[in-house]
């Protein structure tokens, strides 16, 4: 199951007691879910008016960022031209798989300083993800143009490395990933130009990492080399490489980085939403336990019933609606699902493969 339920409930005498209760109700005897504490730092609460307005803004931002995360994932799938499983294993956040990142979530204090107001933090995330979205549009357009051009070239002139999928040739280990400053590029070099490449690549632009080039693959005509450099030197490097008849390929490294950034931003938005909604529902002083539940697919309905029984005292009207809905087969609650406890779904199945 790649679906998680991010929920919160008010602290009893202590937040640990809240945690112990849900563990007893969902894991110790019936194995309904795998649970993790979800750590949210002490954020600035602000005024009630601001929180109410922010609640609506965060809902829209959540939807927007989820859309960008899925678009980046789909772009990577298109570039990889490979199976769902292959692409899924390449979707990383902070260098780890998505489930690990979510279940061990730690707030990024450097990117999103908690001394800032909640509104400022949401604006930082919004600007960051809007930039990723704009970059993606540019990159997807360039990729589609390149793909179209390569398909029109004659193989004997272009070299087969320029036209084949690289999915089975390169691995994650061949790239510097999740670096703000460094990037790994792929370069096609004619076999007759290997010695020229080795002599020249470190001086094609400033800020090329010495001895960073490695031969990853070769066919009868050409070799595929990796090279690592600082991001700010990319344009100069590509220009000089082209002058020397070395062809730099557009590849998935930027997709990796953008996906990681977008996914991390998305989970931080979920954390913000839990915090804001918990304060609005449970009041001050701030006293709630955020919890991440990974339901077992066969017992999801039972898990809902158990959570409803556990927390129905928090909001009797919501509990009554859920009770009646459970008695009517085929009735589906609206997309704005409301429960007596704070609840947000996180689905890590981000790829829409066309069969």
TrEMBL record:
GO terms for cellular component: lysosomal membrane; vacuolar proton-transporting V-type ATPase, V1 domain. V-ATPase is a heteromultimeric enzyme made up of two complexes: the ATP-hydrolytic V1 complex and the proton translocation V0 complex. The V1 complex consists of three catalytic AB heterodimers that form a heterohexamer, three peripheral stalks each consisting of EG heterodimers, one central rotor including subunits D and F, and the regulatory subunits C and H. The proton translocation complex V0 consists of the proton transport subunit a, a ring of proteolipid subunits c9c'', rotary subunit d, subunits e and f, and two accessory subunits. The keyword Repeat does not apply. This is V-type proton ATPase subunit C. Keywords: Acetylation, Hydrogen ion transport, Ion transport, Transport. GO terms for molecular function: proton-transporting ATPase activity, rotational mechanism. The keyword Ion transport applies. InterPro entries: ATPase_V1-cplx_csu, Vac_ATP_synth_c_sf. It comes from the Eukaryota. Subunit of the V1 complex of vacuolar(H+)-ATPase (V-ATPase), a multisubunit enzyme composed of a peripheral complex (V1) that hydrolyzes ATP and a membrane integral complex (V0) that translocates protons. V-ATPase is responsible for acidifying and maintaining the pH of intracellular compartments and in some cell types, is targeted to the plasma membrane, where it is responsible for acidifying the extracellular environment. Subunit C is necessary for the assembly of the catalytic sector of the enzyme and is likely to have a specific function in its catalytic activity. Belongs to the V-ATPase C subunit family.
């Amino acid at each position: 199951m790649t679906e998680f339920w991010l929920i919160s409930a008010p602290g009893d005498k202590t937040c640990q007691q809240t945690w112990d209760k849900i563990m007893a109700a969902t894991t110790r005897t019936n194995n309904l879910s795998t649970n993790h504490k979800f750590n949210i730092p002490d954020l600035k609460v602000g005024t009630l008016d601001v929180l109410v307005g922010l609640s609506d803004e965060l809902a829209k931002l959540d939807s927007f960022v989820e859309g960008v995360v899925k678009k980046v994932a789909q772009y990577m799938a298109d570039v990889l031209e490979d199976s769902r499983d292959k692409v899924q294993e390449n979707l990383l956040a902070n260098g780890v798989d998505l489930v690990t990142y979510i279940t061990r979530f730690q707030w990024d204090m450097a990117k999103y300083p908690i001394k800032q107001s909640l509104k400022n933090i949401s604006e930082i995330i919004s600007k960051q993800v809007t930039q990723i979205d704009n970059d993606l549009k540019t990159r997807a357009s360039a990729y589609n143009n390149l793909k179209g051009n390569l398909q029109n070239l004659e193989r004997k002139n272009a070299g087969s490395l320029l036209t084949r999928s690289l999915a089975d040739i390169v691995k994650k280990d061949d790239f510097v990933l999740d670096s703000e400053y460094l990037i790994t590029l792929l370069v096609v070099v004619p076999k007759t130009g290997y010695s020229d490449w080795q002599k020249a690549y470190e001086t094609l632009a400033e800020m090329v990492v010495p001895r960073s080039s490695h031969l990853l693959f070769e066919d009868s005509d050409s070799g595929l080399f990796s090279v690592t450099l600082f991001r700010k030197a990319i344009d100069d490097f590509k220009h000089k490489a082209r002058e020397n008849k070395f062809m730099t390929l557009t590849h998935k490294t930027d997709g990796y980085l953008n996906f990681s950034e977008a996914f991390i931003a998305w989970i931080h938005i979920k954390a913000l939403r839990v915090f804001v909604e918990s304060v609005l529902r449970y009041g001050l002083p701030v006293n709630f336990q955020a919890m991440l539940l990974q339901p077992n697919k066969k017992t999801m309905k039972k898990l809902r019933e158990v959570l409803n029984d556990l927390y129905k005292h928090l909001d009797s009207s919501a509990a009554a609606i859920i009770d009646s809905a459970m008695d009517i087969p085929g009735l589906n609650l609206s997309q704005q699902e409301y429960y007596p406890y704070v609840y947000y779904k996180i689905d890590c199945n981000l790829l829409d493969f066309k069969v």
